[in-house]
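Supplementary Text 2. Reproducibility record for the structural model of the 513-residue chain.

All settings were left at their defaults, and a single model was retained for analysis rather than an ensemble. We include the record here because the model underlies the residue-level annotations in Supplementary Table 4.
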Amino acid sequence: MSTTTAAPFTTKAKLGLKQRYALLTRGLDWEPSYQSKSALYPYAEFEGIKIHDWSKWEDPFRLTMDAYWKFQAEKERKLYAVLDSFAQNNGQLGLSSPRYLNAIKLFLTGVSPLEYQAHRGFAHVGRHTPGVGPRIAAQMQSLDELRHVQTQIHTLSHYNKFFDGFNEFSHMHDRVWYLSVPKSFFDDARTAGPFEYFIAIGFAFEYVLTNLLFVPFMSGAAYNGDLATVTFGFSAQSDESRHMTLGIEVIKFLLEQDPDNLPIVQKWVDKWFWRGHRVLGLVAMMMDYMLPKKIMSWREAWDIYFTEAGGALFGDLSRYGLRVPKYADIATAEAEHISHQNWCTFYQYTHAAAFHTWLPSAEEMDWLSEKYPNTFDKYYRPRYEMWAEMEKEGKRFYNNALPQLCTTCQIPMVYTEPGDPTTISFRSSHFRGDTYHFCSDGCKDVFDGEPEKYAQSWLPVHQIFQGQCGGASMEDVLKYYRLNPGVDNMDQTGSPDQVMWDAWMAARSKVGG
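Retained model, structure tokens:
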């Protein structure tokens, strides 16, 4: 019988998070042997950005893949527990009003597809970024964005069982006139170079503007009884906090790498701030007009989340020479008007929108007067009162003309001159023999910076005139949109959603005695 001596059982010390992150972001990089780096990353240099040392990239979260899956799985379990509870307890009956759901229809058609666009965009720039640190960060954010669109669609699918206007959201996003505003924003970003995309989405949208969407609007969702939406919103917001921190890291990294990067970055910050501000005009309208129970006005949200928070941010970045975005003062002044001008537009074109509209009640107009003491009563209350009189006389006002669109932001030309709310703002540029029209100096500047790109804009009204949208009549275009006339659109009063809700409430009152 032979005897053997067992080797002593040894274990290696477990690697710390910092060590594992270093292996992931530094140990997985390698130098190519039979291809040049410029051939592997063809878009890394054409924007003019100079990077001297990719190892200087510092991810503030140092998130490893195993930690990522663990954190996200925990959030998923909590989210789906709330969603199941909401559905099993008929949570839709706890909403403040069926009017509220029109904001959610706009969110699903206008915002959720942007999450998917962000997923694709970060996957693309991750592939085309030479530095392994930002490459991993882009990969993580790409996964986050895919999770966001999945959770949002799953959450809102519950409402699709009962209410109209939800089932064709992805088709509508690619076609409906007002949805070209957010779509064109991301189309523009995804067709830019990788560094501009980082600034457009990672910094300008995520860091400077996202809080205006996810914090005050999600609080409004909770206040209106929509625990399903607020749960996915706050679940996403914890990712957004990481994205925002990464966004600020991107801009500091670029500015620290070479002083020649500053004018390029400043131009991108100016451009994407203005473009984001225009997209968020839809959120302004949702907060001021579409939430039956309101939490704060768009003016208040702008002051808190851009003027104060953004002011501190750009104060910090001034040490790099970066200044507050061009036209930030104009955007701040427009916070007095943009929600009213947008809602007035949708009221006029309710027959071509995939949600319902209404005139604000007397109580709601008093709230708007209180929140906008310098502008609402003077410029907008008289308009609503006139339209209310027209409705009483059976002459509900519809605008049957196709509006002229801004070539850059693609919003109808409804905004007014800075400092003069009685005059429509109108700008134009000439390029290769054609004239292009804009709603503002900000949009004209964006076009003039890259006219070859924006001259190709897919403008919904132009497409209708060119016969690309199913035909020349309203009926043809709505069919092309897959919008169900008389069901998905027109006034909230008398809509199938409202009729069904009233029947539910009547039955509840009858049962409750």
